[in-house]
Amino acid sequence: MIDHSTVAPDTAKQAAQRLAAVGAHFLDAPVSGGVEGAKNGKLSVMVGGEAEALERARPVLEAYALRVTHLGGVGAGQATKAVNQVLVAGIAQAVCEGLALGEALGLAPEHLLPTLGAGAAGNWFLEKRGATMLRNEFSVGFKLALLHKDLAIVRGIAEQAGTERTVIERSLADYAELMSQGYGDDDISALIRLKRPG
Q1: Which pLDDT belongs to residue 62?
Q2: In this model, does residue 137 exceed pLDDT 90?
Q3: Considering the chain, what is the average pLDDT of its residues?
């Protein structure tokens, strides 16, 4: 069984134990790459589980993934996805705040975006969502309610690990605010709504 959902590592371990009891193998294999990655077969799959089980499943995964990486035993895929979601949330915070500033300063998106993308500020989120968010188009990608759900799981993982949670907590609060305003189905780039002048 290959599980692409985002859950806690302990949940993945419990699923693996139940499946092992009936002779089945389990891979926790959350993905990253956005809607575009899914449509274009370019997802990154983060796999936890037995290496032999992954090798049997690899041809299936490679049919829709650009990268399939074995990260360790069951739960390692989910642990990696937790790290991924912190980075996604932090990058979204920075890009939305920066572009809201550029907008407020009257900078033209057609010049601003390629200039930023060519330098140290360039990243996937800026490239894929910068222009759409500045046009107030928020139906293109990963729903912010889903990131909020993921970050609630990540919060527990980070608490157990004893690591800093500033990005996690800020993003949870911001996305909860957007959900309360009825924007839960919008792409995570709808965060720019909160970064613009009141």
Answers
A1: 95
A2: yes
A3: 97
What is the Rg, in whole angstroms, of the alpha carbon atoms belonging to the chain?
18
Catalytic annotation, residues: 81
Query: Distances from the Cα of 179 to the Cαs of 86, 105, 148, 176, in angstroms?
Result: 19, 28, 9, 5
Q: Do the Cβ atoms of 75 and 48 come closer than 8 Å?
A: yes
Quote the pLDDT of residue 34: 84
Decide if pLDDT at 185 tops 90: yes
Burial class (CB in 10 A: 0-12, 13-18, 19+), 33: buried
Listing DSSP states for 51-88 in one string gives HHHHHHHHHHHTTTEEEEEEEESTTHHHHHHHHHHHHH
pLDDT digits (tens, 9 = 90+) for 21-78: 999 999 999 999 988 888 999 999 999 999 999 999 999 999 999 999 999 999 999 9
Ramachandran area for residue 52 (φ above 0: left; ψ -120 to 50: alpha; else beta): alpha
Full set of structural domains in the chain with CATH? 2-74 (3.40.50.720), 79-195 (1.10.1040.10)
Angle 31-33-39 (CA atoms, 0-180°, nearest 5)? 100
In b/e form, how buried is each residue of 39-49, taking b as 16+ CB within 10 angstroms? eeeebbbbbbb
